[in-house]
Amino acid sequence: MSIPVTIEPPARTKAHATFIVNGERLEVAFAPQKTLLEVIREDLALTGTKHGCELGECGMCTVLVDGEPVLSCLALGLAYTDRAITTVEGLAHGPELDSLQRAFAELGAAQCGYCTPAMLLTARALLEKNPHPTRDAIREALSGTLCRCTGYLKIFEAVERAAEVGSGNPEGGEHGHE
Fold first, then answer.
1. In terms of Cα–Cα distance, which of 3, 33, 42, 1 is closest to 15?
2. Among 97, 108, 121, 133, which is most buried by a count of CB atoms within 10 Å?
3. What is the pLDDT of residues 87-125, one digit of tens each?
4. How far is it, in rounded angstroms, from Cα 60 to Cα 8?
């Protein structure tokens, strides 16, 4: 005869941290073992950042941290406090879409849309460093984000069109993206 044993789960502690997401300073309480992806989606309710392989191989979870693409599924949330994080929700300039968002829509570069947030953010980082990239530079920059719906051609063309328009200013021309 077995004796029933009650096992109490360990007390869950919460980490309290400040994140700077899409230009807004946010206080968040979350389980300290959460990835940046989980904090963004679950605790900040910004669901544009997608779960993919969760192994860092597909790129679906890409966000920008201090302007650089980061695979948020591999990043511990606590390591990114007080850093400038940009998600796809932060690309638009008020009611005006970013030049990349407009180009993706106009050229049909977004098919199912699952990879689109990561493609947009990675392309934005590229255009901030290199406002007039070659097709090869675009291909290289986006090579870490897998798309199963397109042949990438429309995506490359959309990035080229956005480069022609400028760095996100709805009127065209250059301006720093923050």
1. 33
2. 121
3. 999 999 999 999 999 999 999 999 899 999 999 999 999
4. 36
